[in-house]
Design brief:
heterotrimer; A mainly alpha (about 375); B mainly alpha (about 300); C alpha/beta (about 375); A: about 375 residues; two-stranded antiparallel sheet; 16 helices; 4 strands; C: about 375 residues; alpha/beta; 6-stranded parallel sheet; 4-stranded parallel sheet; about 20% strand; disordered N terminus
Chain lengths: ~375, ~300, ~375
């Protein structure tokens, strides 16, 4: 008996949506087996890693905080990937956006006014876009491979940040620790406790807090706008055509150069905004620990979300759950921190491996070559 | 500045350059075949823990080099299956490979922290390395000499052999290589596995030569420098050798300048030294991409999946 | 802000259809019979052989000392910023009565969580901010460094010592100063060369920096970095060296002359006892050799008189007759910072931002 891949006439929509779910389920099953095999409580590990965060209301705000930058960056990258333009330097754009906004923050440490926060957010958007413009310029002017240049620029950005944070921008009253001063109240994103609002509105009482800052809310708004833009606008159409059929795009009057610029400015701006949301929200300052690999993880989120804005939301939440769950597994089961990465990598491996099912179907063939079975459904292949 | 001092500096430079030279050499061959594997850091870490564990258990650094190569190749195989057999996206798979290698090496390494190992003695009689010139020539770990041999071998392979020609053809134009009857996927499998093995040996350089210990994330991001290095060298093995030593010099130079207390050592902040390899890489990349002559060095199919029926 | 506690939740849960439908996971509210739950947050892996290993060993020591009166758990590799806030908050939500945050970078996150959980006691390692339910604790690392400096002063022939630092934070600056001051007492011509590696953790860079110092003529060296990479380089180069955080002699059997050992155990046990007894106060603790918080690994592979000199310093710290920070102390420009007859205050030590005379290097 042999399996054979047979090209589908049309990419399977069912598989497009079924494979991510299958990948997550498969990760849970295989993860439980592997961690049991090496002497941990495997089922417990999977429970803590994937389910406990969802079933524990006070962890929801942690999931939201972790997912929000992943989603915001991921939705920008997804647009680029649709156009087959590979920006893998979102981490750098995230950092530079944060730096630009934090720079405004330092200048306005002693100022007050409602204009300060919007100014910082705007600076963040511009900073990210500028850093994204560099690979775009190199690609359009010198034909430089944007994958490589955007990656290199990420490391330049991180070293720039290290310099500023440990040098000129260091908090003068911070005992020489490499971190900037905390943001002031006028530089902080407003936040609301959703559980409390529910209590006030409906009398619902849920233990703990579910505090969301404005960045999370704006992220959702932006992603929904992006969903409309990608689906309905000329821009969305342009991106899809350039990605799927570059030649047709040229005949159709869509300039590839222009698309590259648009994609990099957009994904850079969104990454920069994510960066300044972190500074004015959860972090409250910049420090050496500021780069959290959100820019790289967002690439994974974009793929896991099938380059679809709504998919990206779901993928961002799933990834965030594994981060939050990783801590819970540690404190509950003393599962090593490294297991988090193994779960995440497995999930992505399974997803990437199952991608082929979208364009191909698996057929069971006899040695003679004749068809022996019906196409394998995802449920069967995952089992 | 005495001759002894210069030699001491050189020895440190060699140490800093060797791991990125190995990993870069592997990545160069991988990229020449048209595949971009961003999982170098993960493969290096797997090589590092495999090497450390082998020496810790068997006491043999030679065996450790072999297990490191095998460990690197094994995780590279995951990448190869996903990207070559299942046409998964190379960028995403490479990033996942780095996450995987980092996590798995940490998990395996849990029992190995806090232990010291004894690794290579010099292969030449110590009498040869008593004077300064002797030390420069004969004073290194065997892995250093092996890295030079590998550069020569890879350069010869790519330039002077039929197999090397095929590998480059696959990276330049997979469809025509396929139409002439070469197995594009087969060649790329071999290149990716070679890249993994070399990254594994590059990672092994840490416990075997530089820091005979195991700590999680031991390679400290050198895998990304190795990727930059390949680009910096314009995908040419001999330039890669020069580039690796240039990068090694940059990082070492800063430390020696600081230790000497020289006033010019603080002209550039430490972070600028650290960023220089990446800035230099972008500049070189722009230069070779802009000039038609050298532009041909970047494999035309880099990062693109091979779809024969397309 | 309405802070719903668990008891109130139980009362109102029935009225809440949505909340009741959720399978909420709760730990029981603490009652007198329950053991005290304690959470530890670590900045790196517990087996790093340095800072975090010392804290983890101390946690286990505390568990042993207090038996079934306490339970505890930890989360390792927690980066500063939102990740640390999440972990600290999770410990609070799990019903911990006492939480130890073991890295300076956690301070602001801890202050935020502490505000939301006024009934929980928080202990902030190396921090300085105040709140009714937050106390800071630290170790007098410089006491150990002065033992090392004394031995280094005796062993060095060139009179040049090397010191590898991460960032010029007060703790590291204080370590360098006390090393130089102690060595200077033995050899007035002694100088210390400093390299800042500008990263918290990179073993290969630590090793390269150690080589650079040795090649520059340092014939004795120590480091304030987390991995034993530099110690291994010294063993190979035949340069006397010292471990930090825990005994690192297994990495340099002949050249590691002694190590400073951080012993947080007595402090953790004490703090937990105070919380159990209801006598916990938000007082900052700054323990040294006298309290057993900093200890030296056995001094070995040195001449007897050097060993005796090192042990005399230890004894001096114990009985209060030795203080490396007793004046006169000059800074690098030669200006008197601590006049004769005075000693540096704890606050000054904890905020050190200048190097003493005899140190080559800048604070950047």
């Amino acid at each position: 008996m042999k399996f054979r891949l047979e090209k589908r006439p049309e990419p399977s929509r069912l598989m497009l949506y079924a494979t991510p779910v299958g990948a997550v389920i498969l990760t849970m099953v295989v993860g439980a087996i592997i961690f049991s095999a090496i002497g941990y409580n495997g089922v417990g590990a999977v429970y803590q890693e994937f389910l406990a965060p969802v079933l524990t209301p006070y962890k929801w705000q942690d999931i939201a905080i972790k997912a929000s930058p992943l989603i915001l960056i991921g939705v920008g990258l997804a647009a680029g990937n649709r156009a087959a333009i590979w920006n893998i330097g979102a981490e750098g754009q995230y950092v530079v956006g944060a730096l630009a906004g934090a720079g405004i923050g330092l200048l306005t440490q002693n100022a007050t006014g409602p204009w300060i926060l919007p100014a910082m957010l705007l600076a963040g958007i511009i900073g990210g876009a500028v850093w994204g413009a560099i690979p775009a310029l190199l690609r359009t002017r010198f034909n430089v491979n944007e994958t490589l240049s955007s990656l290199m620029m990420t490391y330049v950005a991180i070293h720039l940040m290290n310099y500023l944070v440990a040098g000129p921008w260091k908090d003068p009253s911070g005992f020489s620790f490499p971190q900037t001063p905390l943001v002031t109240s006028d530089q902080t994103l407003p936040s609301w406790d959703i559980f409390q609002l529910l209590h006030q509105a409906f009398g619902l009482a849920i233990t703990g807090h579910f505090r969301l800052h404005l960045g999370v809310v704006l992220t959702l708004v932006i992603v929904l706008v992006m969903a409309v833009v990608m689906g309905r606008s000329v821009f969305g159409f342009q991106i899809r055509v350039v990605g799927a059929a570059p030649n047709a795009a040229r005949h159709g009057g869509f300039s590839q150069q222009q698309t590259i610029w648009l994609v990099f400015l957009l994904s850079g701006a969104l990454a920069g905004l994510a960066g300044i949301f972190e500074v004015t929200g959860p972090f409250g300052q910049m420090s050496l620990g500021f780069p959290q690999n959100y820019g790289f993880t967002a690439i994974i989120v974009a793929f896991l979300g099938r380059l679809n804005p709504i998919g990206v939301i779901i993928a961002g939440i799933v990834l965030a759950i594994t981060y939050v769950g990783g801590d819970m597994a540690q404190s509950a089961l003393q599962l090593p921190n490294a297991s988090k990465g193994i779960f995440q990598a497995m999930m992505l491996f399974f997803l990437l491996a199952s991608d082929i099912l979208i364009r191909y179907r698996v057929r069971l063939v006899t040695p003679a070559g004749g068809l022996a079975a019906e196409p394998v459904t995802p449920a069967k292949s995952a089992a | 500045m005495s001759i002894d001092y210069l030699i001491a500096v050189m020895i440190t430079v060699v140490g800093a350059s060797t791991p990125i030279l190995f990993a870069g050499l592997g990545e160069l061959v991988t990229e020449k075949s048209g595949v971009l594997n961003l999982g170098v850091e993960g493969m290096m870490l797997m090589g590092a823990i495999a090497a450390f564990a082998t020496v810790d258990q068997t006491g043999s650094p030679w065996l450790a080099v072999c297990t490191a190569a095998a460990a690197g190749a094994l995780v590279a195989l995951i990448f190869a299956v996903l990207t070559l057999s299942l046409s998964a996206n190379q960028v995403a798979t490479g990033l996942a490979l780095t996450i995987f290698g980092t996590g798995l090496s940490t998990l395996i390494g849990q029992g190995f922290t806090g232990r010291a190992i004894h690794t290579f003695d010099t292969i030449f009689p110590p009498a040869l390395a008593t004077n300064p010139i002797g030390r420069v020539l004969f004073g290194y770990s065997p892995l250093v000499y092996f890295s030079f041999i590998m550069v020569a071998l890879v350069a010869w392979f790519l330039r002077g052999t039929r197999a090397g020609l095929i590998l480059r053809a696959v990276g330049e134009n997979d469809l025509s290589a396929h139409s002439i009857g070469y197995s594009v996927v087969g060649v790329r499998y071999a290149a990716v596995l070679f890249g993994g093995a070399m990254a594994g040996i590059g990672g092994a350089t840490f416990p075997l030569v530089l820091t005979p210990l195991w700590a999680e994330g031991l390679t400290g991001g050198r895998g990304w420098i190795a990727i930059a290095l390949v680009v910096f060298a314009g995908w040419r093995p001999v330039w890669l050798l020069g580039g690796a030593y240039f990068f090694g010099l940059l990082t070492t130079f800063e430390l020696y300048a600081k230790a000497s207390g020289a006033s010019w050592s603080s002209v550039l902040p430490s972070e600028a030294w650290a960023a220089l390899p990446y800035i230099a890489t972008v500049v070189v990349l722009a230069a070779i991409s802009a000039s038609k002559r050298a532009g041909g060095n970047a494999p035309a199919c880099l990062g693109r999946p091979f779809i024969p029926s397309a | 802000m309405i802070n719903l506690n668990r008891r109130r939740f139980v009362q109102t849960a029935a009225a809440s259809a949505i909340a009741a439908a959720l399978p909420l996971i709760h730990t029981r509210g603490a009652s007198a019979a329950d053991p005290l739950k304690i959470g530890f947050v670590y900045v790196g892996p517990v087996n790093d052989g340095g800072w975090n290993t010392a804290h983890e060993a101390a946690r286990q020591e505390m568990m042993k000392a207090l038996g079934d009166k306490v339970t505890s758990s930890y989360v390792e590799n927690v980066t500063e910023g939102p990740d640390s806030e999440r972990v600290i908050r999770d410990f609070a939500n799990q019903g911990c009565g006492l939480i130890f945050a073991t890295s300076f970078g956690y301070m602001d996150a801890l202050m935020k969580v502490a505000k939301d959980f006024p009934d929980i006691k928080f202990e902030m390692c190396t921090g300085f901010k105040k709140a009714p339910n937050v106390a800071n604790y630290n170790i007098r690392f410089h006491e150990g460094r002065s033992v090392i400096g004394t031995i280094a002063g005796h062993l060095s022939k060139s009179g040049i010592g090397g010191y590898l630092g991460t960032f010029p934070v007060p703790e590291v600056v204080s370590g360098i100063n006390s090393f130089q001051l102690a060595a200077q007492k033995v050899n007035p011509k002694f100088r210390t060369k400093v390299i800042w590696i500008n990263t918290w953790y990179d073993p290969a860079k630590e090793a390269d920096a150690a080589r650079a110092l040795i090649d520059q003529g340092c014939d004795v060296m120590t480091q304030h970095t987390d991995s034993p990479a530099a110690v291994q380089v010294c063993e190979k180069a035949g340069v006397p060296t010292f471990g930090q955080g825990s005994d690192q002699s297994q990495f340099a059997p002949t050249m590691c002359k002694t190590s400073t050992e951080d012993k947080w155990g007595p402090f953790y046990t004490n703090a937990a006892k105070d919380v159990l007894a209801g006598t916990w106060k938000n007082e900052d603790e700054y323990w040294g050799m006298k309290e057993g918080a900093i200890q030296m690994a056995p001094i070995k592979n040195v001449p007897d008189d050097v060993k005796a000199a090192g042990e005399a310093v230890i004894k001096g710290w114990m009985d209060g007759t030795y203080n490396c920070y007793a004046g006169p102390i000059k800074d690098q420009s030669g200006a008197i910072k601590v006049p004769e007859g005075q000693a540096m205050s704890d606050a000054d030590i904890l905020g050190l931002n200048w190097l003493v005379e005899g140190v080559d290097g800048k604070l950047s």
